Amino acid sequence: xxxxxxxxxxxxxxxxxxxxxxxxxxxxxxxxxxxxxxxxxxxxxxxxxxxxxxxxxxxxxxxxxxxxxxxxxxxx
Length: 76
Description:
- 0% of the residues lie in helices and 57% in strands.
- It has strands spanning 2-6, 23-36, 39-50, 53-64.
């Protein structure tokens, strides 16, 4: 997945400093080595780039699919 932004920067509290730049490019590479029934494990590499500066972030994510059952209904 890739994202490219060109425009006015935004200051986001607790957000990445890249969003403050007028030009921002991000590439996410996701590899799923573990998939068993409802559990999925993924390695994520995010490459960030702005003019004059680049950085990267790595993560491992585990997700569990709880299905499509309705857990709670709210009254309108």
